[in-house]
Amino acid sequence: MTKSLRANYQAYVDTFRRPDGTLGDMLELKLRHTMRVVSNARLIAAEEHFAEDERVAAVDAALLHDTGRYEQLTRFNSFNDATTIDHAALSHDLVLRFGWLDGRADAQAILDAVRLHNRKELPAGLDRITTAAAQTVRDADKLDIFRVLENLVATTDWRTDSRAFWNLPIDRQPNPRVLSAIRAGESVDYSDILSLADFVLIQVGWMISGLYYPVSRRLARERGHLAFRRKFLAELGAGDAAEQVCRLAACEFLC
Ligand SMILES: [Fe+2]
């Protein structure tokens, strides 16, 4: 990561600090998430033997991917894109406006990777560097989202208060539409998420068809993310169909 970019990013984040120097819990979590996504991106670039130009673009795009989260929370008091603003588009617009990438040959690749990081699918025809940056950010982001869910399960009283999980009911069976989309390797429509089990199953679906690089699937396995979800779904009483989806993911890991 270029030093000046890191300094620019840090200075921007600092503008959201309170008089006592803290960011507040929600923004602090986003900053930590971002730094973990950067670490994941570095791992992916190293293990996939990226060319130097791909590595730099991927790591810088990881740093910038959620730039808009600070303004989103400050303006709307919410991270819910559906009811506020597309935070990836906002991140792209801010980075462009600040001129942080001006003069760099890979500026457009990084901006595109930032703008596309939350899309269901990437458009066809992206060039080599954009593809590396975009796919890396998407994998690195998901790998940290796995960690975030496990952290929330461990630290919240989700049985009585599922605010951390969109207030989804905890005792409802998985939506058959979610199960069949995952089995077919298709992306799930967020409007089909009707239960906590669906929320967890979507992440199992990422392990089947949502991680682009082999190293990302390996990291997910090594970090125990599938095992955690399998156990948690059993705890939720999500049933045999959910277990079958977990088995599919386990098979994907072995293949
Ligand atoms: Fe994001």
Structure description:
- By secondary structure, this protein is mostly helical.
- It has 2 domains: 3-137, Hypothetical protein af1432 (Orthogonal Bundle); 156-254, no CATH class.
- The chain contains 12 helices and no strands.
- It has helices at residues 3-14, 25-47, 52-64, 69-76, 87-98, 107-115, 128-155, 176-183, 196-210, 214-222, 225-235, 240-254.
- Helix 3 (52-64) crosses helix 6, helix 6 packs parallel to helix 7 and helix 7 (128-155) runs antiparallel to helix 9.
- The radius of gyration is 18 Å and the shape is globular.
- The mean pLDDT is 93.
- The structure holds fe (ii) ion.
List strands and helices in order, with pairings:
Layout: H1 3-14, H2 25-47, H3 52-64, H4 69-76, H5 87-98, H6 107-115, H7 128-155, H8 176-183, H9 196-210, H10 214-222, H11 225-235, H12 240-254
Bound molecules: fe (ii) ion (FE2).
Which regions have little confidence, pLDDT < 50, spanning 5+ residues? none
How many DSSP E strands? 0
Mean pLDDT, to the nearest integer, reads 93
Rg, nearest Å: 18 Å
CATH top level of the largest domain? Mainly Alpha
What is the overall shape? Answer: globular
Strand/helix succession: HHHHHHHHHHHH
Strand content: under 5%
- By helix and strand content, what is the structural category? mainly alpha
Count of discrete domains: 2
CATH architecture descriptor name of the largest domain = Orthogonal Bundle
Q: Please outline the major beta sheet.
A: none
Name the ligand types: fe (ii) ion
**The CATH topology of the largest domain:** Hypothetical protein af1432
- Distance, first to last CA: 33 Å
Helix content: 55-70%
Please give the count of helices: 12
